[in-house]
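Standup notes, structure subgroup. Blocker cleared on the flavin-adenine dinucleotide input:
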Amino acid sequence: MTEVVILGAGLGGVIMAYEIKDKLRGGGNVTIINNGPTYSFVPSNPWVAVGWRKTADVTVELAPILAKRDIGFRPEGARRVHPEDNRIELNDGTELSYDYLVIATGPDLAFDEIEGLGPEGNTQSICMVDHAERARTAFDELVRKPGPVVVGAVQGASCFGPAYEFAFVLDTALRQAKVRDQVPITFVTPEPYVGHLGLDGVGDTKGLLESAMREHHIKWITNARTAKVAPGVMHVEEVGDDGAVKAEHELPFAYSMMLPAFRGVAAVAGIDGLTNPRGFIQIDKHQRNPAFPNVFGIGVCVAIPPVGKTPLPVGVPKTGFMIESMVTATAHNIAALVAGEEPRAVATWNAVCLADFGDSGIAFVAQPQLPPRNVNWSSQGRWVHAAKIGFEKYFLHKVRQGKSETFYENLALDLLGVKKLKDIHIEPAE
Ligand code: FAD
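Run returned:
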């Protein structure tokens, strides 16, 4: 029997398990390894951080669901992948062998690269649900004792949508608590302009986001390198187009949430041929690692080069729809290999994002990622908030049901009027 192992039970890994199980039609065993027993819906973390959701609302106990689908589950987590011997060492000292491995570990959060950054230092995070819970406690304290807020992302980050989203969600939550008038908000970002998003803008994201920030009284600093974070003071260097420092800012804060840079997780970092210097999984257009062709990568853990040059490092986002298309392509390709055929499915890697403001929001679609594009569209409205709630409900329903339909294909793309987007492209057989 073919053994397929999936490393990581996040947004990509869980649906990967469901899709490959369906595709192999009983002709293979599927096992998923995760750090811990639960799935957690990361896009809801901004809401957890202001008390609009509880952790229990957005997490799912995986063991019973996976057992029902006859998918093996190892919640011990992986210590190290050994691709040259097709095996994985788990944190409890046991090992698992595979014929095909799909790496879906998401990011390691590089807080240690900046002094004072992160929940163990002086800023909050919304990258994990337990971080978001802690950020909620700090938010409650902010409501009790209002003061300045600094929100944004540091140099090397690749996830700007959630940074903007959180600035607007915070603005809404502080207005609801009737203390917004005592909380000046500054948005700090390494992007060369507001709305760049690691994609050199999509449609008019620059105009839409600048105008929304003006309307919501959020000031911003772009081309901003976060030098260090002391208790209550962020030290920021603003650089020019040549990368030279043109201004230094000391930003006092009562509350701060900054997204860190991402890198690959320790279990795969530094494996020659598998990962790049930052620890991201190297893949070809079939999601397959060139050095170890029975290993595939999906989601935030894969290496994607930046879109053009910027004065400070700005990464490309890997959003839900893009990840779902990577999953579908990988399921096709592994099934083809098992059947003795060549992999032919190519994920389109379209960037679709809904950035919620709490009462309204901004949506964008970039197809393909690199400009010039066939679809380069952004829009603002109350419907975005509703669509994001739909995304959460539908995705959690899908995980709980053990089903692998694609949310964006079925609902969001209809709403966005871009149904013509395909999730994958199948190359003709030679
Ligand atoms: P993850 O969902 O992070 O899952 C990785 C899994 O791997 C985790 O369960 C982790 O425990 C596990 N793992 C890690 N290391 C190991 C190991 N050694 N052994 C075993 N398991 C391991 N995208 C959107 O499209 N819309 C949004 O609204 C949106 N909001 C976001 C908000 C935030 C705050 C962030 C950070 C991202 C957001 N994204 C959003 C981007 C993206 O969709 C999510 O980050 C998504 O969760 C990425 O999926 P993933 O499967 O790659 O990684």
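Discussed briefly. The pocket of flavin-adenine dinucleotide is lined by residues 7-13, 33-36, 42-43, 45, 77-78, 104-106, 126-127, 159, 162, 265, 267, 299-301, 319-320, 323, 353-354 (CB under 6 Å).
Next: hand off to the docking folks.
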